[in-house]
Amino acid sequence: MSETTFMGVPREKIPWYPTIDYDKCNFCMECDAFCPHQVYEHREGDRKLVVANPNNCVVFCRACGKTCGPDAISFPVKSEILTLIKNLRTEELVG
Amino acid sequence: MKRAILSCSGMDKQMGSLARELAIRLNEKTGDEVVCPTLLASLPARYEELLKAASLVVIDGCGTRCASKLANKYNAKVEKKILVSEAARELGIDPESGLTPGPNGLKLVEQLLRDVERDLSEETTPGNSVMELAPPEDFLIVTHDKYQFKIPKEGFLFNENDSWVRPVGDKARVGVSDYVQQKLTDITYFEPPALNANVEQFGELGTIESTKSLLEIVAPVAGKVTAMNMELTDNPGLINEDPYGSGWIAEMEMSDLASDTELLLDGEAYAEVVKRKAAEDAG
Asked: Rounded to whole angstroms, how far apart are CA atoms B10 and B20?
């Protein structure tokens, strides 16, 4: 189940989710075992792990990245996302 | 208290081999016993007495944090943690690949050795805690199945990442909520934020590790960290026991509470968030 809003902004409008660097990922699946929100899913083929449910990711949570041995997970810059959220909130209020 | 060193075995990646190198050098400097991670994993009885008597310096190579997990598994007391990959990033040092440490790797090890020696020899300055606050008395209670989550009715504001702020004038105490401490279960380690650091709202205010999980504390307000709760170094379980009182995390000088409040929730609104999260956890 995904959060539907974050601070009053529809979750799908906030681009906060992990990005996997496939040059570094060794498919140990530690991030998937760690995340309780089913952001990741396993696949057949070369890319055995994908970010399948980005909107399940808790906005501003980066904990799975801290469990990544090969440092293959990155997140957006918090301050940029915060500015976006503030702007979207203003739009929602005006709208 | 006696001290011992537990590090990554150093046989998988270059960051691990640097963790191992750091453990060896720290042992040469301090004489503190080194715990072999492989031996601990295969024959824990070998270290049973030591782990009861000593607090550990845990040195992890990478985010898999095998040494931390071993320390957790055997209920060891942890005094200090070092994560080499994170330190490399923060210090802007790019170690050579391969398991034999190269010049950059050794430079990183030397820097970390100086840092850890300093941290272990000095009492870390906790800053000056200036706030004397009575623990809250009136709570909203969110009940979900067998769980009850307390939320102070007044005087506290929350973000959706389960941190609280208790402002008094332009100063504030910050911490994490009862809901998130219960979700983490037994808290085993608290990595405090840097004293005097300027933190943005939603920036990082240290991390909490439990037997089950890891939490980045998301700052409820922007400002400067003026004090840390050093009680948590010896007893991180205070966050479990009393998240709104003696388990506080830090004190801050807030830069703009009025603006930050726009993105904060009062107790009632946060109770709704906890209800939703608890339902999602169960679902």
From this structure: 5
pLDDT in tens, B42-75: 999 999 999 999 999 999 999 999 999 999 999 9
Which CATH number belongs to the domain containing residue B181 in this structure?
A: 2.40.50.100
Per-residue tokens: B86: 């994170």
Give, in degrees to the nearest 5, the angle at Cα B217 between B216 and B223. 130
Whether B237 and B78 have beta carbons less than 8 Å apart is answered as no
Check if B197 contacts A (Cβ < 8 Å).
Answer: no
**B261: chain A residues, CB-CB within 8 Å:** none
Question: What is the C-alpha separation between B18 and B109, in angstroms, rounded?
Answer: 6
One-letter identity of residue A76 = P
**Residue B262: count of CB within 10 angstroms of its CB:** 11
Q: What is the ipTM of this complex?
A: 0.89
> CATH number of the domain that B26 lies in?
3.40.50
Q: What kind and span of H or E run contains B19? A: helix B14-30
Distance between CA B61 and CA B187 in Å, rounded?
22
Task: Report the run of H or E that residue B168 belongs to, with start and end.
Answer: strand B163-168
Task: Inform me whether the pLDDT recorded for A95 exceeds 70.
Answer: no
pTM, full prediction: 0.88
Confidence of residue A94 (pLDDT cuts 50, 70, 90): low
Domain count, chain B: 2
Q: Does domain A5-88 have CATH number 3.30.70.20?
A: yes
The residue out of B77, B92, B121 marking a domain boundary is B121
Instruction: Report yes or no: A84 at the B interface, CB cutoff 8 Å.
Output: no
The answer to whether residues B80 and B165 belong to one domain is no
pLDDT digits (tens, 9 = 90+) for B3-15: 999 999 999 999 9
Interface test with B, best of A30, A71, A79 (most B CBs within 10 A): A71
